[in-house]
Amino acid sequence: MELTLEELNKTIMEMRTKGYLTKALKLADQGLLVALESNNYPYVMDLYYQKILVHHSLGDTLSMVNLIHDYEAICQNYGTTKDLMHYHLVMSLIYDLVGIREKTVEMTKKSIAYAQELQDPVMLVRCHNNLCYLEVEKGCTKEALQAGLLAREYNKSLARTMPDLAKLHDIRINNNLADVYILEGDFKKGKALLDSTLSSTIIHHHKREKVAALFGYGFLFEKQQKLEEAVFYYKQAIDLARSYGDKPITKKVMRLLLNVLYQLDWRDEIFDVQREYIDLSEKMSVANLLQQVMNLEFKRQKEKLEKKAHYDPLTGVLNRHFLDYELQEWLNAAEITQSYVCITVLDVDYFKLFNDTHGHLFGDMILQLLANSLKDFLQDEDVEIIRYGGDEFILCFRHSQKDYIKTLVHNTHAYLLSLKLEQEQQSYPLRVSMGACVNNQKNYQYKELFEQADSCLYQAKANGRASCVLYELS
């Protein structure tokens, strides 16, 4: 029997929870193909998220990084608050694995903000527990304890609805809180939590969590100056991490093991571990994970700057940059497909009077109302919305049928005349004048189309404002 995407997504999560990672990954691959073929983007995003978390549990950082670019692009285009929450969690995991601590904390806190907004118990547990771990890494035991105990409280409520997942979270929380107590010198509490982890009925299915517990024992004995015991547990943690190919954790524990070996002055062992550590570092360097993540970050910042350059910050629509650098390409595409185009110019009647009477902030609200309403009304149309300057906007329509464009222009104008700004228990109706020029499937030159549309706008003003004049090229 074939599973629906909803059932498949739920099954993959259950497999992850039970530690059946290879099977979960195979199912996620199959589901992702189906979701992509059917353009079912909510499940595309869910399945990307599931795949990345499986790779994280397997210690496969390279696969996580390889997936993140496509996942981010789909989240930006189709993502809801839930998807952005998941995306920031994933990015926190990647930044942590390549050692960019500041970005790890930033992404974790963004995830927490989204989780609080959605009141998502699973993410509230996971994110606060991750924050506990990060505060431990910084040596901030007070903050780490606060985050860990908060994760535990959220997990108690999660246990009522998702008991299997709550058991796994219990192990992760115990591991992190054990590190907190060990740092504070409360070795008894720390050991009790680690004992609880290793005696769990599900630990044998979760190698990553078991590695964390073994590492915790090594840390416990190192802090007690029981160095030979620390070596024993650090070696066990390394062997287990190696067994499923978790290079980042193997490298991290090797570094701690070397520190203990130096204290013991076990020179032969130091030489062997150093050689393995260098070899592992070189292999990880070949993968060049840090560079790939930094390239992602550079690309993200570049796209943010480009967006700022292309979009008007007040209204969120395109700015003059689009007209100067991209519109002709847009028109060329219309010419290739022999689509009709319509350049439309509009502005708010008596806008200066609004500013002079009510102030410029009131004027800004008028412009935002106009821009947001245009975006909503035209969201399903092939149109570009540009703020030309001041209260003047340009709409560039494209369609295969001339009559459709003409009707759409008039409907858009009628819709704008229905808008009102509600402010301080008063209603201010908008009056908008509009001029438009529809081409003849021959002329695709913006300058000529704009000049004709602008002339129509002046005619609309002369007709008493709040009107629309449309001209068709013959």
TrEMBL record:
<dbReference type="Pfam" id="PF00990">
    <property type="entry name" value="GGDEF"/>
</dbReference>
<feature type="domain" description="GGDEF">
    <location>
        <begin position="339"/>
        <end position="473"/>
    </location>
</feature>
<dbReference type="InterPro" id="IPR029787">
    <property type="entry name" value="Nucleotide_cyclase"/>
</dbReference>
<dbReference type="InterPro" id="IPR019734">
    <property type="entry name" value="TPR_rpt"/>
</dbReference>
<dbReference type="InterPro" id="IPR011990">
    <property type="entry name" value="TPR-like_helical_dom_sf"/>
</dbReference>
<dbReference type="InterPro" id="IPR043128">
    <property type="entry name" value="Rev_trsase/Diguanyl_cyclase"/>
</dbReference>
<keyword id="KW-0802">TPR repeat</keyword>
<dbReference type="InterPro" id="IPR000160">
    <property type="entry name" value="GGDEF_dom"/>
</dbReference>
<protein>
    <submittedName>
        <fullName>Diguanylate cyclase</fullName>
    </submittedName>
</protein>
<feature type="repeat" description="TPR">
    <location>
        <begin position="211"/>
        <end position="244"/>
    </location>
</feature>
<dbReference type="InterPro" id="IPR050469">
    <property type="entry name" value="Diguanylate_Cyclase"/>
</dbReference>
